[in-house]
C-alpha cells in the first residue's frame, strides 16, 4: 500500500483515533515492565510520526525512519521537533548497537515475503544495543476473519478464511474510506522470523477490549485483533 495523495492525512486521522486504543492502552506499563537501560529509541516505520510524541512522553530520545516519502513529509509538518529519515526497507543508516529501544507499529504486515521480513528484523537486531528491547505491534490473524463483528474494523470478504501466509488481505476502517491492504502472516510466521534473526521473545500479548470502557466493544471483548510482541536482543 502506497500512502500518496490524501492517504497520509486519512492514515493520521485513523490511527490517532479509536482504532489504536486497545493496543496503545497497555503500552506504557509494558515498556516499564521490560525496562531499557538507556533512552535512545527508533520508530521503524514511523509513518506520519503519530507515535513519536508517545515515545518521547515515555522518556525516550526518539527518531523515526520510513520508506514512504509522502508520509515523512507530513511527519515533518506535524512533528518538526523530531528527526525523521527516508530509508529503503531493511536498511537503517545507523551504526551497530546504537538504540536501546526499537518500536515498530503495523509495519511487518506490509511486507510481502518472509525473506524481506527477515532482512528488516536482522537490521533492527543490528542497530539495537545488546540487551535492547524491540516492541512490535501488528494485526492478529482474527482481524481478517469476515465472520467477526468488530466495532472499528470491517474485514473485506473476498476470499476464504483463513488465507495462506503471504496472501493479500484487506480491512476497512469503519466510518472511513481508509482501506488497509496487508499481507496475512500468522503468529507462527512471525515467531519463526524472530528466532531466525536472533531475538528472544519475552512476551506476546493479544489485548482485548474491556466492558465499561468508553467504547462499546463487540467481538473485541472475546477475540483479539491486535498483537504485541516484546523481543530482546540478548546481552553480550
TrEMBL record:
Recorded GO MF terms: methyltransferase activity
Pfam families cross-referenced by the UniProt entry: Methyltransf_11
Keyword terms of this UniProt record: Methyltransferase, Transferase
Signal sequence bounds: none
GO biological process terms held by the UniProt record: methylation
InterPro entries linked: Methyltransf_11, SAM-dependent_MTases_sf
Protein's recorded name: Methyltransferase domain-containing protein
Record organism: Parendozoicomonas callyspongiae
Amino acid at each position: 500500500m502506497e500512502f500518496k495523495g490524501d492517504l497520509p492525512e486519512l492514515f493520521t486521522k485513523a490511527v490517532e483515533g479509536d482504532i489504536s486504543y486497545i493496543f496503545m492502552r497497555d503500552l506504557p506499563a509494558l515498556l516499564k515492565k521490560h525496562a531499557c537501560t538507556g533512552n535512545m529509541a527508533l520508530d521503524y516505520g514511523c509513518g506520519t510520526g503519530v507515535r513519536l510524541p508517545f515515545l518521547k512522553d515515555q522518556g525516550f530520545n526518539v527518531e523515526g525512519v520510513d520508506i514512504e516519502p509522502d508520509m515523512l513529509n507530513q511527519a515533518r509538518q506535524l512533528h518538526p521537533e523530531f528527526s525523521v529519515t527516508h530509508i529503503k526497507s531493511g536498511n537503517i543508516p545507523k551504526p551497530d548497537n546504537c538504540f536501546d529501544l526499537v518500536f515498530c507499529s503495523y509495519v511487518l504486515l506490509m511486507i510481502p515475503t518472509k525473506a524481506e521480513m527477515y532482512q528488516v528484523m536482522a537490521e533492527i537486531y543490528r542497530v539495537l544495543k545488546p540487551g535492547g528491547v524491540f516492541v512490535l505491534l501488528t494485526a492478529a490473524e482474527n482481524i481478517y476473519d469476515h465472520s467477526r463483528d468488530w466495532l472499528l474494523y470491517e474485514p473485506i470478504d473476498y476470499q476464504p478464511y483463513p488465507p495462506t501466509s503471504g496472501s493479500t488481505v484487506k480491512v476497512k476502517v469503519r466510518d472511513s474510506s481508509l482501506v488497509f491492504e496487508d499481507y496475512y502472516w500468522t503468529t507462527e510466521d512471525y515467531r519463526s522470523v524472530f528466532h531466525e534473526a536472533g531475538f528472544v521473545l519475552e512476551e506476546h500479548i493479544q489485548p482485548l477490549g474491556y466492558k465499561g470502557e468508553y467504547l462499546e466493544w463487540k467481538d473485541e471483548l472475546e477475540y483479539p485483533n491486535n498483537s504485541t510482541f516484546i523481543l530482546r536482543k540478548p546481552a553480550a
